[in-house]
């Protein structure tokens, strides 16, 4: 089933003057990366086909949740939150189940969210791979406190998704007798959307998770068969681009339902490729900054920069060929000839014309750009799309010879938060932070 098409014509020098040649695409990087991908253990690649009994359990649990509750709150952040948001926004914006994903600890949002919850009708799903992220623990402590205060049992209102053994959540889940789903130890946060991290919230929202996994399995097969496949070529174009100073990767879906795919992609691309050292320990300061955009909205905000600014970007358009709803532009103000061309057309025609027009504008301005076309937005194509990006970033990491799957920079921030919040055992870290020179008043204004 060809639910996704990857078109890179506009990235070739024949079309865009700053694009790539056919010879560049024959780079040996492709074969080497494919070979490494085939031999390397990558936990996320087991997810499409290796979870039958877990999927059954998730579907059963989701059915029970849907009978008793009308609100499902995900407590988590980063890789434990962005996938659930992206998938629900793409596939279940109209679900009768309200999904709230906190993904932060802003006191105003926390207060507003918790104040309006009807605990009796709310199920919480606390998701954390490490089991100890401060933001997630603070969210959980708040939820647990509220559940107890209202006279309910924590184990009837909280499901845990975490590592089998490590972290505080595994301990809490065991002590409190929480229903628990396991995040496989070899699947990192940003690669976990197709594990229980994303599958449970999706199933609760009524999404066909088996179909999502089938889409991912299709993409895995497509990428396994040939070294030149959509994910490896997407990766190569970005890596070649980085070597030419294209340090920015723009993701611009032309569909509101795909807006949060860009947020999810941004984390995947940034955390996976942004690395100080390569696999040999050489300082490389690698990475490509992801930019989240939305078509057609950002044509009226950022596209001026993309067409005329520095040649530092490679842009990916996501186009939807068949929208799930259609609407015609009606006749109105017939005395104004200048707008008459719009009437009778559909909004699909308009948004897709905008997408094609912006691709054209970038191309003639010499800017390489790519198109991913989804036949339609459904569970299958979303599973395939997410998996496509996971494969692409893994290929890019192999081509760049870096560790795609760690995040030492994120861990550093987590440890510093522990120190600042007074966690025992982090006194030295706090002293280290205090040893920075004091701030100079003359550099503070206002
Ligand atoms: O991709 C990652 O590993 C991180 O962004 C994590 O998802 C994020 O820091 C949250 O971590 P955890 O799931 O351990 O709470």
Structural overview:
This protein has 446 residues and is an alpha/beta fold. 46% of the residues lie in helices and 14% in strands. It has 17 helices and twelve strands. The protein has a five-stranded mixed β-sheet, with helices on both faces. Strands 3-2-4-5-6 form a five-stranded parallel β-sheet, with helices on both faces. Strands 8-9 form a two-stranded antiparallel ribbon. Helix 8 links the parallel strand 5 and strand 6. Helix 3 packs parallel to helix 9, helix 4 runs parallel beside helix 9 and helix 11 packs across helix 15. It is globular and about 65 Å long. The model has no long low-confidence stretch (mean pLDDT 96). The protein binds 5-phosphoarabinonic acid. The site of 5-phosphoarabinonic acid has 15 residues, from loops.
Coarse morphology? globular
Q: Could you tell me how far the N terminus lies from the C terminus, measured between alpha carbons in angstroms?
A: 60 Å
What is the H/E order? EHHHEHEHEHHEHEHHHEHEEEHEHEHHH
Instruction: Order the strands across the largest sheet as they lie in space.
Output: 1-12-11-7-10
Average residue pLDDT: 96
- Give the helix/strand class: alpha/beta
| Radius of gyration over all CA atoms, rounded | 23 Å
What profile does the largest beta sheet have?
5 strands, mixed
Helix content: 40-55%
**Residue share in β-strands:** 5-15%
Continuous helix count: 17
Low-confidence stretches: none
Counted beta strands: 12
Which small molecules are bound?
A: 5-phosphoarabinonic acid
């Amino acid at each position: 089933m060809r639910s996704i098409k990857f078109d890179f014509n506009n990235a070739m020098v024949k079309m865009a003057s700053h694009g790539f040649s056919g010879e560049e695409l024959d780079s040996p990087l492709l074969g080497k990366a494919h070979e490494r991908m085939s031999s390397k253990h990558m936990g996320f690649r087991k997810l499409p086909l290796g979870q039958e009994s877990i999927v059954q359990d998730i579907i059963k649990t989701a059915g029970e949740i849907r009978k008793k509750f009308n609100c499902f709150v995900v407590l988590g952040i980063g890789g434990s939150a962005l996938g659930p948001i992206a998938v629900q926004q793409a596939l279940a914006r109209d679900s009768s189940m309200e999904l709230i994903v906190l993904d932060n600890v802003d006191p105003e949002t926390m207060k507003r969210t918790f104040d309006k919850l009807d605990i009796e009708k709310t199920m919480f799903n606390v998701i954390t791979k490490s089991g100890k992220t401060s933001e997630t623990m603070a969210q959980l402590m708040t939820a647990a406190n509220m559940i107890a205060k209202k006279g309910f049992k924590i184990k009837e209102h909280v499901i845990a998704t975490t590592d089998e053994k490590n972290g505080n959540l595994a301990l809490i889940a065991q002590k409190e007798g929480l229903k628990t789903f396991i995040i496989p130890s070899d699947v990192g946060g940003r690669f976990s959307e197709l594990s229980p991290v994303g599958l449970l919230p999706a199933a609760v929202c009524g999404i066909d998770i088996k179909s999502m996994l089938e889409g991912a399995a299709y993409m895995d097969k497509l990428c396994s068969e040939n070294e030149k496949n959509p994910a490896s070529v997407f990766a190569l174009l970005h890596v070649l681009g980085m070597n030419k100073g294209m340090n920015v990767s723009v993701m611009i879906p032309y569909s509101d339902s795909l807006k949060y795919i860009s947020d999810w992609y941004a984390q995947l691309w940034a955390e996976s490729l942004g690395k100080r050292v390569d696999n040999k320990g050489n300082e490389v300061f690698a990475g490509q900054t992801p930019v989240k955009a939305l078509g057609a909205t950002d044509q009226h905000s950022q596209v001026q920069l993309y067409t005329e600014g520095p040649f530092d970007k490679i842009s990916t358009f996501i186009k939807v060929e068949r929208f799930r709803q259609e609407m015609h532009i009606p006749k109105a103000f017939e005395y104004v000839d200048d707008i008459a061309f719009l009437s009778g057309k559909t909004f699909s025609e308009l948004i897709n014309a905008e997408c094609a027009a912006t691709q054209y504008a970038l191309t003639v301005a010499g800017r390489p750009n790519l198109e991913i076309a989804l036949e339609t937005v459904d569970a299958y194509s979303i599973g395939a799309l997410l998996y496509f990006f996971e494969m692409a970033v893994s290929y890019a990491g192999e081509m760049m010879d870096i560790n795609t799957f760690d995040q030492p920079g994120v861990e550093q921030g987590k440890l510093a938060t522990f120190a600042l919040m007074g966690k025992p055992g982090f006194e030295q870290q706090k002293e280290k932070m205090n040893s920075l020179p004091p701030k100079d008043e003359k550099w503070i204004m206002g």
